[in-house]
């Protein structure tokens, strides 16, 4: 009974799964039937044993015979089941083989059909692609031809427009040139008229300057005569100094000096020059002593300008400016008789050469003070008459500046780097003044924009580097900012006072003139 299979083993039996094998549902149902049959047979055997026990078959031999009979029946049933299972297996194997062969034949046919179909599809795709490519090439050629036609048309349109625009531009240019020529002619006519007016004013100023020169020459001759008289009385004065020191009119020195500075200060801006003899008689000790005193005053003025801060400058000027004209030792240019002809020749040639070696910072302060007085007078006046009066005053200031040119000692005392930088700054100021006047002429409401005067970096940096300082850019920025504020303030003051365009331009020009003659040099000296 080693080959006997229990119902549980029959249910647990597994079969290999192959492609296109038996139907698993049929096989499982058949196994389930066999397992049920085995269960029934085992139940029948158990019932037979129970029946045998119930009927009293307890004889071992009889029991063995009965069990043998039952076992034979069971064996027969099992043999029949095995035969049926073997038949099912063989039939399933045969069916599987048939199905496999049929599947192989079908798959081969399908493969052949697929190959044929793919070849036909490839040929169709090739034909379709070829036709599409040819049609695309044709369409591209058509598009290219159309594009070329459009391009030719657009080129023709562009050439026509270009010709039209060129003709329009040529016509506009001719009209603009004609208008510019007319405007230039009118400007030239106006400039010629203004030039004639300026020349007439300059002629008047020159005549006034010549008159002042003659008055100064007369004054100088009188001073020389008084100097000779004073030299003759030196011995007498020296004898009385020791005996009458307390009685000598020392308090009268400021009384006699005060009128002369005031008088000379008035003469700087006027034609009237009176020769006070008192001022000379009190200070006639010696020509060399006068020269030394003037040199000391000039040195003190230069130190006062370099050391104290800018706000103290007016106070320093108040002390220095009066003595400068009051020193009246014009004999200083001619300390000895041989020098006298040279001084006279220089005086007849130019008034300012008389004071070339006596002028210091006080003259600059006088010009600034006179300009501020002129500005205050102009702000109180109005109308076109005011503008003309301002221009005349400006011309007087220019003549005064010409009478007192920039002192040769100061320029000579400045380093070469300062002189080169001063030239650059003055050139830049002239260019900036021209730009400002042009802007005011074309735009009556023009004001200096931000960064309008930023063009002095190079000059200040050169001076700072020569002096071993690194504040060149900062000094240039401060200079440009202060200049911009000064120009803006002057323009706004003139416009607020209701003055005309020419008066506004004259006010701006006055600011630039002051900065060229005074402020630029002062700023450079403050660096050095």
Characterise this structure.
The protein is an all-alpha fold. Among the domains are: 7-126; 404-528, no CATH class. It is 80% helix and 0% strand. The chain contains 18 helices and no strands. Helix 9 packs across helix 12 (361-380). The longest helix is centred in the N-terminal third of the chain and has 173 residues, at 60-232. It starts with 6 loop residues before the first helix and ends with a helix. Mean pLDDT is 72; it is low at 253-285, 309-365 and 376-412.
Question: Can you count the helices?
Answer: 18
The portion of residues forming beta strands comes to: under 5%
Order of helices and strands: HHHHHHHHHHHHHHHHHH
Mean pLDDT: 72
Task: State the low-pLDDT regions, or none.
Answer: 253-285, 309-365, 376-412
Q: How is the secondary structure organized here?
A:
Elements: H1 7-12, H2 24-55, H3 60-232, H4 234-243, H5 252-257, H6 259-268, H7 278-281, H8 287-306, H9 313-320, H10 323-326, H11 339-349, H12 361-380, H13 383-403, H14 408-413, H15 416-442, H16 457-466, H17 472-496, H18 501-527
